[in-house]
Amino acid sequence: MTIGYVTGAIFLDFGAAWEGDNFKGATSKDGDPRLEDIKSSFGFGIRANLGIFVLRYDLAWKTDYNTVAHHPEYYFSLGTDF
C-alpha cells in the first residue's frame, strides 16, 4: 500500500451555540478582551489521501484570544476534506 498526497494544514476554528437571550460573545475585563460564549482554537495537522478517504491528524490549542491552553488536544480522524 502506498501513501501518497501527504499535505499539511493550518487552521483557526470558532463557533457558538446558545438558547435564549443569555448569549455573550466577548467581553473586556481590565482592558483585556476575551471570548465568553464563543469557543475558538487554532492548530496544524497532516493529511494523507488514501484514495477512498483522507487520514487526518491534528493538534489544536484552545484560546479565548487572551490566553492559550498549555497543552494541545490531539485529533485523529478519517473522512473527506471540504
Describe the 3D structure.
The chain is mostly beta strands and about 80 residues long. It is built from no helices and six strands. The mean pLDDT is about 85.
Helix content: under 10%
Low-pLDDT windows of residues: none
Mean pLDDT, rounded to whole units?
Answer: 86
Which radius of gyration do the C-alpha atoms yield? 17 Å
Proportion of residues in extended strands: over 45%
Order of helices and strands: EEEEEE
Structural class: mainly beta
Give short descriptive properties of this protein.
four-stranded antiparallel beta sheet; two-stranded antiparallel sheet; 6 strands; 0% helix
Give the arrangement of secondary structure elements.
Layout: E1 4-15, E2 26-29, E3 32-35, E4 39-49, E5 54-63, E6 73-79
Antiparallel strand pairs: 1-4, 2-3, 4-5, 5-6
Short summary:
The protein has 82 residues and is mainly β. It is built from no helices and 6 strands.
